[in-house]
Each structure stands twice: as C-alpha cells, then as structure tokens.
Design brief:
The chain is an alpha/beta fold. The chain has a single domain, classed as Luciferase-like domain (TIM Barrel, Alpha-Beta Barrel), CATH 3.20.20.30. The protein is about 40% helix and about 20% strand. The strands form two sheets. The chain has an eight-stranded parallel β-barrel with strand order 1-2-3-4-7-8-9-11, surrounded by seven helices. Helix 1 runs parallel beside helix 12. The radius of gyration is 19 Å and the shape is globular. The termini are close together. GO terms for molecular function: oxidoreductase activity.
C-alpha cells in the first residue's frame, strides 16, 4: 500500500495559508504532508518563503492524524545539526509522534545565507557527520562530538517523543545511498529510480503537477513558476538566488515544462505521472500542486477524484 502525501510548498504560499492547507489536506484524506524548507523561493514569481519550522509547529497543533515531514531540510550550514535535532524533537512531541525528519545535502540557494557554499564532496561529508550528531540526540543520548566540521561539547534533548523521530535522507546516487543505508531510516528520491531503494525501508518520492480546468492556463502557470524544474540537481544545487534560476531557465519553453509536468484536468494524465513512482517502488509519494492560489481547488479535487482513483 502506497501512502500519498500533500506538499506544503513554502515557496508559493504564506505561513497561515500553509497551515490552513495542512488542515484541509487531512480532511481530504491525505496520509501525510511534506514541507519544503527554503530561505528563498526558486523564482521570484513564486513569491514566498516563510520559516518551515514555525509552519510545522502550527500544523502539528492544528491537525490530528496527518503525518508530517520535512522534504527536505539541510542540517549542515543554515542550521547546526544539534539545533535540527531539537527542532525535530519538538515537532515530534507537538504532533504526538507524527513527524519524520527528512534531510539532504542542500542547495546554495538556501544555505549560502549563513556562509560560503562548500564543494559537493564536502557537503556530503558534512551531512554524514551531521547525522552522527542528530541520530543519538533523537534517541535520547547525551552527545559529545568533536569532528571535522562540527563541535558539540555536550548536548541533550530534554523534550523528545519517547519513540524517537524517524530520519530519512535524500539520495541521488550510490555514494549517498551508502550513507543513507547506515545513518537513516529511509530514503527520499529525486527521481523514480528503483535502484535507490533500501530494502525494508521507506522510499519517498515527490511528483509535481498542475491541476486545473483549463490545460492551457495550467501550462502557462507551470512555466511561470516551475520552469526551473528541468535544470537537474547538479545545476540546481549550485545556483545562488532566484535571479540565477531565472537566467538558467530562460531557455525553457512551455512545451518543455508540459512534457515533464502533467497539466490540466485530465485525471489519467496525472495518474500516469504518479504511476512511475509507484512502479519504482515508492512507499510514500508526496504530490505538489503548482500555484499557491490554486490549492483549495486541488484539495477539493483530491478528495472527490484523485485520492479515490489512486487508492483503487
């Protein structure tokens, strides 16, 4: 059985709207809500970027059954790993054990606000060392750590769920998969690739779509707000700000976006896009509706049409 989630996109909605959307997603029947954690939007046209952890706290208190997760946060530059552990433990308590911490190596777009952006190899080393701090803290241990990148003279979490907080890690290849296998409880994939699975562990994917009654309008909206989508991770991780994403995606056409993102009212087209992640073995799939002003219509359609079709 695949669990289906709704994505709270901090880049395209304000904080109060995101909490309201989480409540509506629970009512619509979604199993979980995943939230992005950015300091900046990908493009200025998206127009938002509230603090994800504040939104999570409010959403945890406002919902009853909806699982919550970060997809993903970067525990290496903007946040010290011990602070990420404290944030995750607090949301775990507030949600009564409904929170999963999703982590990744991050992007220049968000992390450079706190210092220079390291090389990819260094970033992966930093992420592995961060998990060596986060995991024992979430397990209730007192941590003393002196490493290559981080110092923790002594730290203990005083408020944490007794069952701990699951940690899943974004992976893109063999090297990161090895780290995830040893230091996380599951993986988040950036593409529907069955080889990125770890046996008997959760496997998360994410599918962007642009639902609406007019396919032409949906294609235009997807181009306006998600044209960065096709840049691929080696590029996306390095660009520093929305202006750079705008320049790098200026060559992208409406047809390019529509070939990668399902647009319009056709249910079968959206199901086909999701099916590739089901076929890859994902146990959890988070859906992204493009356009902050179109979430209510999407959630209504999810309740009446999309989720019943997915579960049948």
């Amino acid at each position: 059985m695949v669990n289906f989630g709704y994505t709270l996109m901090c880049e395209q909605s304000g904080p109060t709207e995101l909490v309201d959307d989480a409540v509506r997603a629970e009512e619509a029947g979604y199993d979980f809500a995943a939230i992005s954690d950015h300091f900046s939007p990908w493009l200025a046209e998206q127009g938002h970027s509230p603090f994800a952890w504040s939104v999570l706290g409010a959403a945890a208190y406002a919902t009853q059954h909806l699982e919550l997760m970060t997809m993903v946060t970067c525990p290496t530059r903007r946040y010290h790993p011990a602070v990420v552990a404290q944030q995750a433990a607090t949301i775990g308590v507030m949600s009564q054990g409904r929170f999963t911490l999703g982590v990744g190596a991050g992007e220049n777009l968000n992390e450079h606000v706190a210092g220079a952006w390291p090389h990819r190899t260094q970033r992966h080393e930093m992420l592995a060392e961060a998990l060596e701090i986060i995991n024992p803290l979430l397990d209730g241990e007192t941590v003393r750590h002196s490493g290559t990148y981080y110092e923790v003279p002594e730290a203990k979490l005083w408020d944490r769920p007794e069952e701990g907080v699951p940690v899943v890690m974004a992976v893109s290849g063999h090297d990161s998969l090895e780290v995830a296998a040893s230091l996380s409880d599951g993986v988040v994939a950036v593409q529907p690739d069955r080889s990125l699975r770890i046996p008997d562990k959760p496997f998360y994917g994410q599918v962007a779509m642009c639902y609406g009654p007019d396919e032409s309008e949906c294609r235009k909206r997807a181009l306006d707000q998600f044209r960065w989508f096709g840049l691929q991770w080696p590029v996306m991780a390095e660009l520093p700000d929305p202006r750079a994403f705008d320049a790098a995606s200026s060559f992208v056409t409406e047809d390019d976006v529509a070939s990668a993102i399902s647009c319009g009212p056709d249910l079968d087209r959206h199901l086909q896009a999701i099916r590739s992640y089901v076929d890859a073995g994902c146990t959890h799939i988070a859906l992204v509706q493009i356009g902050g002003d179109f979430q209510h219509d999407f959630l209504d359609w999810s309740e009446s049409t999309l989720l019943p079709a997915l579960r049948s």
